[in-house]
C-alpha cells in the first residue's frame, strides 16, 4: 500500500524535496521523472559560489597548475606553480556520462580488458583500476568518467586531483556536488609547489585500503 501511495505522489507532483539526516535530500523532478539523492552540502570559502554549468576556470588558474608524475602507485598529481587564493574555481568534473549502473559496468569491463591486454608493465597495471576516474553526481544514478580527460596531462583538469583525507592539512580542495554538476574550489590559500588534493570519500577505498597513499 505504501509503494502505491509513493508512486501516486510521483505522478501528480511537479517536484518535491525530502530532507535526510546529514544534510542530504531526496529530490524528485516531475518534468523529467527522475528521482535523485543530493549528497551532504560542502562548505565553500566565504564569497564564492558554484558557477553556471560550462563555466571554465580562468587561464591564469589553469596555467598556474602543472601535472607531474609522482610514483607508479600514486600516478600523476596537480601542483601549484604559484600561490592560489582560497575559493578559486578549479573547474567542473568532465567526461563521459552514464545514466545507469548497468551501462557503467559494461564500460568498465571493457576498460579492464583493455588494461589487461595493453603493453603496460605488470607493476603499472597493478595500480590501475577501471573505476578510478568515476564520479557519481547524484548519489548513484548518474556517473561521470574522467578517464579520457585525465590522459591529457599537458593541461590541468580536475581529474588530475589526488586524494587527501578530509580535515588534514594536505586536503586543500573542496568538491561541491549539485544535481547536474560537480565543481572544485581551493578550500584555503595554496602555496607554490603544493599538491592540490581533495577527499575521495570512504566508498572509494572500500576493498582497496592497502592501495591508499598518504
UniProtKB/TrEMBL annotation:
User: Which stretches are transmembrane?
Assistant: none
- The segment(s) forming the SET domain are 63-201
Query: Which domain of life does the UniProt lineage start with?
Result: Eukaryota
Gene Ontology MF annotations: histone H4K20 methyltransferase activity
Q: Name one GO cellular component term.
A: nucleus
Highest lineage ranks of the organism?
Eukaryota, Sar, Stramenopiles, Ochrophyta, Bacillariophyta
Q: What is this protein called?
A: SET domain-containing protein
Xref: InterPro entries: KMT5A (IPR051760), SET_dom (IPR001214), SET_dom_sf (IPR046341)
* KW Methyltransferase (keyword) present: no
Q: Where is the signal peptide?
A: 1-15
Sorted alphabetically, the keyword list is: Signal
Tell me a GO biological process for this protein: regulation of transcription by RNA polymerase II
Amino acid at each position: 500500500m505504501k509503494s502505491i501511495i509513493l508512486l501516486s505522489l510521483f505522478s501528480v507532483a511537479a517536484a518535491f524535496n525530502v530532507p535526510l539526516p546529514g544534510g542530504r535530500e531526496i529530490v524528485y523532478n516531475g518534468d523529467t521523472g527522475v528521482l535523485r539523492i543530493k549528497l551532504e552540502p560542502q562548505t565553500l570559502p566565504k564569497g564564492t559560489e558554484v558557477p553556471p554549468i560550462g563555466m571554465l576556470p580562468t587561464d591564469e588558474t589553469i596555467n598556474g597548475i602543472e601535472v607531474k608524475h609522482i610514483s607508479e602507485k600514486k600516478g600523476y598529481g596537480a601542483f601549484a606553480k604559484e600561490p592560489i587564493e582560497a575559493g578559486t574555481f578549479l573547474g567542473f568534473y568532465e567526461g563521459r556520462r552514464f545514466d545507469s549502473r548497468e551501462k557503467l559496468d559494461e564500460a568498465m569491463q571493457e576498460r579492464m580488458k583493455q588494461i589487461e591486454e595493453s603493453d603496460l608493465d605488470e607493476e603499472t597495471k597493478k595500480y590501475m583500476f577501471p573505476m578510478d576516474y568515476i564520479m557519481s553526481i547524484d548519489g548513484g544514478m548518474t556517473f561521470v568518467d574522467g578517464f579520457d580527460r585525465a590522459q591529457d596531462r599537458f593541461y590541468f583538469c580536475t581529474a588530475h586531483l589526488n586524494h587527501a583525507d578530509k580535515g588534514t592539512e594536505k586536503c586543500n580542495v573542496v568538491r561541491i556536488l549539485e544535481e547536474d554538476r560537480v565543481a572544485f574550489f581551493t578550500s584555503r590559500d595554496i602555496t607554490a609547489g603544493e599538491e592540490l588534493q581533495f577527499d575521495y570519500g570512504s566508498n572509494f577505498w572500500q576493498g582497496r585500503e592497502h592501495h591508499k597513499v598518504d
